[in-house]
Design a protein that fits this description.
The chain is 48% helix and 13% strand. It is elongated, with a radius of gyration of 25 Å. It is built from 14 helices and ten strands.
């Protein structure tokens, strides 16, 4: 089951996207609707609110008086925490019930207005953010009956555009017409959501091209890596000692293959062979690749036992992800982080590596040959970093 988080600021057009996804067969779970449902007239949730905050939070008809509740519940932190203790478990339980009704081949879309504000993105395989310029959103809200001042205040109280962009795997621009937005969602479904769901279900990872293709630095690589790291930490929890974005896409300003490499550090490599670990990785969208369990030792004559690993590939057709699971303290684990940190801080190191990449990429059009050709340079850098030097292969 592919889990998709859907969010967007007030007036962004999130409801239009949710309806379009439902039209493609997705199960849409609306967090706002659930929040109203669990405190509807006659529910245990409403009774608990009345017990805690008094009968004044009820209307004459026995419904929740939301304005009266807000005046009491948001008057101090203790009252707000009591409100959340009553409502949040009920909302989560009802959402889980609805998620459980999904077919094995269904995409489940969780429509959550405050997904970014509450830092929930790691719980989903993908996060979709719907957005439009503030002035467009204000105009839409005014047409719905809000005053301009109220519309602007509500927009200002929510996450910023930068915060939403950092959380977004997919950015849906709704500055045009509803027809434009629906057409964008249609393409997204065909090109990414449906293939991702199928890849997860049948156990098929997404591979990068065998051709050596280097891309100019992309400012989005850092956020993309952070989202992968967050998801792996979420599914692995205590099984991972550390999770870090590594490789060239983790170094600002460095050209790279358009692939996110992430390292998971474990206390013992055998832990990565535990069925629970493998299942957790698959739940996050990452599949074990049998046979890819040995890094090139550095230096070349080093004991290869210090350079063993487990390798996982991601299932998202929109973002190629490689996950390297290594034992903390092993040569491979240490070098992946030391090499990244050196490149981040050394302008000369980045220049050397970029020149090496460019030259070898032109000479070796196949990725495997290109990777092998870099190893002698890595040997030199490893030796110097291990000795506490600058790491530079040339002076």
């Amino acid at each position: 089951m592919l889990r998709v988080g859907l969010t967007g600021g007030i007036g962004s057009g999130k409801s239009t996207v949710a309806a379009a996804l439902a039209g493609h067969g997705a199960l849409v779970v609306d967090a706002d609707r659930i929040a109203r449902e669990v405190v509807a007239r006659g529910t245990p949730g409403l009774a608990a609110l009345a017990d805690r905050f008094g009968p004044g939070v009820l209307t004459a008809e026995g419904d929740l008086d939301r304005a009266a509740l807000a005046a009491l519940a948001f008057s101090d932190d203790s009252a707000r925490r009591d409100l959340e203790a009553i409502t949040h478990p009920r909302i989560a339980a009802r959402a889980a019930e609805l998620f459980a009704t999904a077919r094995p081949d269904q995409v489940v879309v969780h429509d959550v207005p405050l997904l970014v504000e509450k830092g929930m993105g790691a719980a989903y395989h993908l996060v979709l953010v719907v957005d439009a310029p503030a002035e467009v959103r204000v105009a839409r809200l005014v047409r719905r009956g809000l005053s301009e001042a109220d519309a602007r205040a509500r927009i200002e109280a929510q996450a910023t555009t930068a915060q939403r962009r950092a959380a977004a795997d997919v950015w849906l621009d709704n500055s045009g017409t509803q027809a434009d937005l629906r057409a964008t969602v249609d393409r997204l479904w065909v090109e990414r959501l449906a293939p991702y769901e199928e890849n997860l279900r049948v156990g098929r990872r997404v591979k990068r091209s065998d051709a050596t293709t280097l891309s100019a630095p992309d400012p989005d690589w850092a956020d993309r890596g952070a989202r992968v790291v967050g998801r792996l930490r979420h599914v692995l929890r205590a099984r991972a000692v550390d999770v870090e974005h590594i490789g060239s896409t983790s170094v600002p300003g460095l050209l790279a293959k358009d692939v996110v490499d992430v390292q998971v550090g474990v206390a013992e490599l055998a832990a990565a062979d535990d069925p629970g670990f493998v299942a957790a990785m698959r739940d996050g969208g990452y599949l074990l690749v049998e046979g890819n369990d040995q890094d090139h030792p550095h230096p070349a004559d080093a004991d290869p036992r210090g350079w063993t690993k487990r390798f996982y590939g991601g299932c998202d057709p929109g973002c190629v992800v490689n996950v390297h699971v290594r034992q903390v303290g092993s040569g491979g684990h240490w070098f992946a982080l030391a090499f990244r940190d050196w490149l981040r801080t050394s302008r000369q190191g980045r220049a050397e590596y970029a020149a090496l990449k460019t030259g070898l990429g032109a000479a070796h059009p196949a990725t495997a040959d290109y990777a092998a050709a870099k190893e002698p340079w890595f040997d030199v850098v490893y030796t110097r970093l291990a000795a506490g030097g600058s790491g530079h292969a040339t002076n």
